[in-house]
Amino acid sequence: MTPSSETEPAASLRIRILFGEAAMLGPGKADLLERIGETGSISAAGRAMGMSYKRAWLLVEEMNQAFREPLVASSRGGRKGGGASLTASGETVLAHYRKLEEIMAEAGAARIAALQSMLREKDGS
């Protein structure tokens, strides 16, 4: 069996951007932003990712404080219900992050394939 066979999972590239010690943007926060955009809810986005509402809210707060403009706008619940949405800045940050993932995956495809070809096969050979 070769590493590129159908039973072998494809390699994936995940990036984490560290902005000094003040802020970080990585796959978890990007996925959270994407799910908030899809669901209109911080709690639903967190549930979809298997995280608590508190954890999701803390990550949103970290991102909102790290960037000049908030990435997520939220409103409290009540009779009309609460909700959350990506701000224009949030949509822009997510788009830049996803594009960077795409660029890096394309640029690194040959190196990733070379590394994957060096992996042991599941039978240990």
Brief characterization of the structure:
The protein contains 4 helices and 4 strands. The strands form 2 sheets. Strands 1-2 form a two-stranded antiparallel ribbon. The chain has a two-stranded antiparallel sheet with strand order 3-4.
What does this structure look like?
- This is LysR family transcriptional regulator.
- By secondary structure, the protein is mostly helical.
- It has one domain (17-117): Arc Repressor Mutant, subunit A, CATH 1.10.10.
- It has helices at residues 27-39, 42-48, 53-66, 88-117, and strands spanning 17-19, 23-25, 72-75, 83-86.
- The strands form two sheets. It has a two-stranded antiparallel ribbon with strand order 1-2.
- Helix 1 (27-39) packs across helix 2 and helix 2 (42-48) crosses helix 3 (53-66).
- It is elongated.
